[in-house]
Amino acid sequence: MNTSEQQRFDFLYEQHLTNLTLQGKRPATIDAYSRAVRRISAYFDCCPDNLSTNDLKRYFADLIASHSWSTVKLDRNGLQFFYRYVLNQSWQWLNIVKPPQVKRLPDIFTPAEVSIVISLTHQLLYQVCFLTLYNMGLHLGEAVSLQVGDIDSALMQVHIRDAKGGKDRLIPLPQRTLLALRYYWQTHRHPQLLFPGKDGKPGSMMDRGGIQKAMKKVISDCNIHKSISPHNLRHSYATHLLEQGLDLRLVQHLLGHNSLNTTARYTRLTTITRKNTALSVNQLTNSLVLKWECDI
Fold first, then answer.
1. Domains (ranges, CATH) in the chain?
2. Which of these, 237, 32, 220, lies nearest to 130 by C-alpha position?
3. Which pLDDT score, from 0 to 100, does residue 200 have?
4. Torsion angle, CA of 51/53/58/62, rounded to 10 degrees?
């Protein structure tokens, strides 16, 4: 970009950041939406205020070829915001970029596998972290952000703060998990965090990448052939609660889901559902009178 082009970009970019803040967007959203504007500006080496529809089509075609659909969606939404609130232009080509509608079911642990994974995890910090993720159905970010003051041992509940969507929620604290958290906290005695980072810096949380690597290692050691990450502990928590007969709406509250439909997908993962389905399918098949079987 030449000097005047760069100055125009800088001005519009600052407007973009200001509008994102004024709209109450969360820090992660501001970061993603601002990155979208920087990325397309770098791609064309110009301020993105005069790009044509064909330019945008070409850009997103290349983005789809080189990035995940989650990145594509974030860039689409970020540029939509930029055009609408900074450039005051309509977003006529929004439907050009349509991610495929994919509805996958996650792999889940059995309760026995959860026990094995936690037991065979070598380091205490990861053992307690995995137990916390599973026994409270947390997102990884929620777990590593837990603070000492979030634990209410009198009421045996945990205050999950500023979770996905900016919502707080209260969830039950299992006695066993409380004891494990207390035992682990004694090893570091951080004044604020339950899972502090190893660098010892104030406010530094446990490294998420380290947690993911530890999970991958123990899954391999346990010879479990499933597509598993720490997040699958949350999926397993929800599925196992439904198997125990907990009401679907209560599970929705525990997970912090906005829509009951999001929680309802776990009903398809329960052993009860699978057994009932298999029984019905077998009954249906066995009711058939097949002449050729008489000759077998």
1. 3-96 (1.10.150), 112-227 (1.10.443.10)
2. 237
3. 67
4. 80
Q: How many CA atoms lie within 13 A of 94 on its CB side?
A: 13
DSSP classification of residue 259:
-
Say if residue 294's pLDDT is above 90. no
Q: Look up tokens 């391999």; give the residue.
A: 220
Query: Do β-strands 157-160 and 169-172 pair in parallel, antiparallel, or remain unpaired?
Result: antiparallel
CB-count burial class (<10 Å; 0-12, 13-18, 19+) for 235: buried
pLDDT at residue 292 greater than cutoff 90: no
| 164 touches 256 (CB < 8 A) | yes
> 119: which 2 tokens?
């037991």
β-pair partners for 172: 157
Rounded distance between C-alpha atoms, residue 208 and residue 224, angstroms: 21
The enclosing H or E element of 151 equals strand 151-152
Amino acid at position 234, single letter: R
- Give 85-110 pLDDT, tens digit per residue: 999 887 665 566 776 776 778 888 99
Q: Is residue 230 very low, low, confident or very high in pLDDT (cuts 50, 70, 90)?
A: very high
Q: Does residue 264 contact residue 248 with C-beta atoms inside 8 Å?
A: yes
- Residues with Cβ < 8 Å from 196, sequence gap 6 or more? 188, 190, 204, 205, 206
| Number of neighbouring beta carbons within 10 Å of residue 92 | 9
Q: Are 286 and 278 in contact (CB under 8 A)?
A: no
* Whether residue 287 has pLDDT greater than 80: no
Q: What is the per-residue pLDDT for 175? A: 92
| Intra-chain end-to-end CA distance of the chain, in Å | 80
